[in-house]
């Protein structure tokens, strides 16, 4: 059969000319799908630690927090403001710091003052919900001894001092 087929004349001309369309393929859906696969999720809310002993001076506080998930975090956003008992406490100045670590020492604070802190985690996908708020307190400023009011006798001494703090101090330690 092959031999007979090869003996025949075959017309190789196409009866119609092929028309090729210039097609633009829209890959935006595929691209969007690929980007969604490679995107990391926004992090979970960090957990702020309560104030640690000896983490305060009269003008500074060391604040620590943790992230209890395997989320990718580029930095943290630490926010704080002084705690006020007044009704206009929302008008208090709110401060925000960007921090790379899970701790921060805040300086230039007022002595014997309560501050409210909260933190959020950030990555390329977005920002986490804020942590719960924690209240930290700076140490009181040292009292001033009233030198003119010092009195003494053979077995006793009277020493007076005054606190420069606005908020009341719990106790004082007198050393001889």
UniProtKB/TrEMBL annotation:
<dbReference type="Pfam" id="PF00041">
    <property type="entry name" value="fn3"/>
</dbReference>
<dbReference type="InterPro" id="IPR003961">
    <property type="entry name" value="FN3_dom"/>
</dbReference>
<feature type="domain" description="Fibronectin type-III">
    <location>
        <begin position="46"/>
        <end position="142"/>
    </location>
</feature>
<dbReference type="InterPro" id="IPR036116">
    <property type="entry name" value="FN3_sf"/>
</dbReference>
<protein>
    <submittedName>
        <fullName>FSD2 protein</fullName>
    </submittedName>
</protein>
<dbReference type="InterPro" id="IPR050617">
    <property type="entry name" value="E3_ligase_FN3/SPRY"/>
</dbReference>
<dbReference type="InterPro" id="IPR013783">
    <property type="entry name" value="Ig-like_fold"/>
</dbReference>
């Amino acid at each position: 059969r092959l031999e007979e087929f090869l003996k025949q004349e075959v017309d190789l001309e196409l009866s119609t000319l092929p028309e090729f369309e210039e097609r633009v393929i829209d890959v935006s859906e595929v691209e969007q799908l690929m980007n969604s696969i490679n995107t990391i999720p926004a992090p979970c809310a960090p957990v702020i630690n309560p104030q640690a002993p000896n983490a305060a001076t009269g003008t500074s506080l060391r604040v620590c927090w943790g992230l209890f998930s395997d989320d990718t975090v580029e930095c943290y956003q630490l926010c704080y403001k002084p705690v006020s008992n007044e009704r206009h406490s929302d008008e208090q100045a709110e401060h925000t710091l960007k921090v790379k670590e899970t701790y921060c020492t805040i300086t230039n604070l007022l002595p014997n003052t309560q501050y409210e802190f909260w933190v959020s985690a950030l990555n390329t996908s977005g920002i986490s919900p804020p942590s719960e708020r924690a209240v930290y307190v700076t140490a009181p400023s040292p009292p001033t001894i009233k030198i003119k009011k010092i009195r003494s006798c053979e077995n006793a001494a009277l020493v007076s001092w005054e606190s420069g703090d606005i908020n009341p101090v719990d106790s004082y330690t007198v050393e001889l």
